Automatic annotation (TrEMBL):
It comes from the Eukaryota. The keyword Cell membrane does not apply. It holds the Pfam family Plavaka. This is C2H2-type domain-containing protein. GO terms for molecular function: zinc ion binding. Keywords: Metal-binding, Zinc, Zinc-finger. Residues 4-34 form the C2H2-type domain. Signal peptide: none annotated. Residues 33-65 are annotated as: Disordered.
Length: 653
């Protein structure tokens, strides 16, 4: 059987498939940090300016850099010379990077305290968490257990004497290194007896200490070899700049420079960008007036492949309270304002323990076993588009990234920044801000409480909701259906749609090609469904719609597939820009046929920001809500812990 050799000439590893060959090469050669940490002696140079490539559309072009200022470590990577993650001891004193790390202490695996043994723990875990048995049934079970023991003249006892005995032991259980905590909040305005109930209700926000969660994440040895200890520039064999993981982007390099400018004593620390994510998935309905939406946390140091692989690189850190209300209050301005303020205040409160380490480094153990001085920074926020407007304090229908008018999102507009918003809010009236700039001045984004954080900068485009579900499924597929009905009448149009479904169902079985036995007519669409449909949709509609309509969807798919790549070069970014331009040209067919009167659609407009996003943060597939959506089962388990904790911990304040 033919085997494939590693693409690195000095490596003699062989593989059964090109997939294994490529994965090994990217992990251990292109992206590997092993044996690449510099040995630095004496005073270190200040960080250079941003990397030297930036397309014309980038709102903040990076000045050219002097290559002599960089510490070249390999033919492929050049690490930041200031925030380069120099190893230290547990007290923060720098050590020789060649010093072997101290061995990790392994916890004892036979300590079941406060349970008497493993059987008692397994029984409590099964009854309380897995099947959630009622107290009455638990007592009945233990009574049967005891009778069975007595009938067989067995002197041993049931694991617990009663449900109350079991609950007391559960109450004494320590729930990991990052237990769930709770604080409550209420509406702080005037409340009258005739006001709606949401004004007088208390809202619980559950969370973990993010500092503890991040410390555990940084100390995970599973990430060794797939972890970046410093921002870096990567160039291919032709000297062209390339982008992949988060630390390869301009954002990490630029913020590392800023941190050094703020305090030169930070030199040698490790830059740790924090990645947050949330979505509108309802985890539970509590007491009838509130829902809980999960908040996730990750770090930009791990490779994108690790963040997507369910390897504890993305962890639930909170459950954000979303007030419920009667339908008659849906348009209540004061309620909408309170929801936004509650959202941002909760985020700020949850992240507050990280604030000191955003200015002064803290010592943390890293995946390779070495200690390092770590400085935190807010790096990116993953959110679907409606939530992005909520996060940015922007009116829905406007873009949270630029100032183009809501009725012409692809028209002229500058980049939104925190400084610009502060200037506008101090200059214009609330009505003018709302109508002309799309700014809701009642909402102050949570990023205002943290250094170097700009909500408009850190919001991440979302491939899943903006491109796959949004532009493809909700827009293009629906527009084709609308066109067929408008052009041929309802009866013949539906007949053609049935033929399209038959074509989709007739696709033969083929590896990595999903079959749709009933066409595309099913109620519950997922992101994977939309991805699979994209592979067969063009051949299904060809001949039924104008060629320009087929071409429009084809070039959009080109853009979508380019955006989903693992690695980017200057050439592939230019390809993406060209595909976006052609998509904007060819989608005019939907206007000329009367399907659309305009294209000022936030999800489609977001595609125009992808090239600059790649420059800043690397490949978009490392910052996509598909990562957080795939963790829903873990979130439900985490909420089980939270609900269990709620009967043992008093509410915070």
């Amino acid at each position: 059987m033919h085997r494939y050799r590693c693409l690195e000439p000095s490596c003699h590893q062989t593989f059964k498939s090109t997939h294994g060959q490529t994965n090994h090469y990217r992990t251990f050669h292109v992206n590997s940090n092993r044996n690449q940490q510099p040995v630095l002696e004496g005073p270190q140079p200040r960080g250079p300016q941003d990397p030297d490539f930036s397309p014309e559309h980038d709102a903040s072009p990076a000045p050219a850099m002097d290559e002599d200022e960089l510490v070249s470590l390999s033919a492929r990577k050049t690490f930041h010379p200031g925030l380069n993650g120099v190893p230290c001891d547990e007290f923060g004193t720098s050590i020789d990077p060649r010093t072997p790390p101290l061995p990790r202490t392994m916890p004892e695996n036979d300590n079941w305290a406060p349970y008497s043994d493993e059987i008692q723990f397994r029984t409590a875990e099964f009854l309380y968490r897995r099947v959630e048995m009622s107290a009455t049934n638990i007592d009945y079970l233990f009574d049967l257990w005891g009778r069975s023991m007595a009938a067989h003249h067995d002197d041993s006892l049931a694991p617990f004497s009663s449900y109350d005995d079991m609950y007391q032991v559960i109450d004494a259980t320590r729930h990991g290194d990052a237990p769930w905590k709770c604080f409550t909040t209420t509406y702080d305005g005037d409340v009258n007896s005739n006001d709606p109930s949401w004004k007088s209700a208390e809202y619980e926000v559950w969370h973990r200490d993010p500092d503890v969660v991040l410390a555990n994440m940084l100390d995970n040895p599973d990430f060794d070899g797939q972890f970046d200890y410093a921002p870096y520039l990567r160039r291919d064999k032709n000297g062209q700049r390339t982008w992949s993981d988060f630390m390869s982007g301009n954002f990490a390099w630029k913020h590392a420079n800023t941190i050094l400018e703020e305090n030169e004593d930070n030199c040698g620390a490790m830059y740790c960008p924090i990645i947050l994510g949330s979505d509108k998935t309802t985890v539970s309905v509590a007491t009838g007036h509130v829902e809980y939406h999960p908040l996730y946390i990750s770090i930009g140091n791990v490779f994108n492949s690790v963040r997507r692989a369910h390897r504890n690189a993305v962890v639930p850190v909170g459950f954000l309270a979303i007030p419920k209300n009667d339908r008659k209050y849906d348009d209540d301005i004061s309620l909408r304002k309170f929801k936004r303020q509650l959202y941002h205040a909760s985020l700020s409160a949850i992240l507050r323990p990280l604030l000191p380490a955003m200015s002064v480094p803290v010592v943390r153990r890293c995946p390779d076993g070495h200690f390092r001085r770590v400085i935190y920074d807010l790096g990116a926020y993953i959110a679907d588009y409606p939530e992005q407007t909520l996060l940015a304090g922007i009116v829905q229908g406007w873009c949270p990234k630029d100032t183009a008018f809501s009725n012409n999102l692809d028209g002229p507009g500058g980049r939104r920044t925190r400084e610009l918003t502060e200037h506008l809010m101090s200059t214009w009236s609330p009505l003018h801000l709302w109508n002309v700039f799309g700014i809701d001045d009642d909402v102050i984004p949570f990023t205002y409480d943290f250094p170097r954080a700009d909500i408009y900068e850190i919001l991440s485009p979302d491939i899943l909701h903006q491109l796959i579900k949004g532009t493809f499924k909700d827009h293009l597929v629906e527009w084709v259906s609308t066109y067929l009905v408008m052009e041929y009448g309802e009866a013949k149009g539906k007949s053609i749609l049935d033929d399209i479904d038959r074509r989709i169902a007739a696709v033969p079985a083929f590896p990595q090609l999903r079959r749709f036995p009933h066409g595309r007519r099913f109620k519950q669409w997922t992101g994977d469904d939309s991805k699979a449909l994209m592979k067969v949709y063009l051949c299904a509609i060809a001949g039924h719609v104008p060629n320009q309509m087929v071409r429009c969807i084809s070039v959009f798919m080109d853009a979508c597939y380019i955006a989903r790549r693992e690695d980017f070069t200057e050439a592939s970014i230019n390809e993406l820009e060209n595909a976006i331009r052609q998509f904007h040209e060819h989608r005019e067919i939907f206007r000329s046929t009367g399907v659309r009167s305009g294209f000022s659609l936030p999800r489609q407009h977001a595609l125009s920001h992808y090239p600059s996003h790649i420059l800043q943060f690397g490949a978009p597939n490392g910052l996509c809500s598909s990562i957080t959506e795939s963790l829903l089962e873990d979130v439900r388990m985490g909420e089980g812990e939270r609900r269990a904790t709620s009967r043992r911990e008093p509410r915070g304040s």
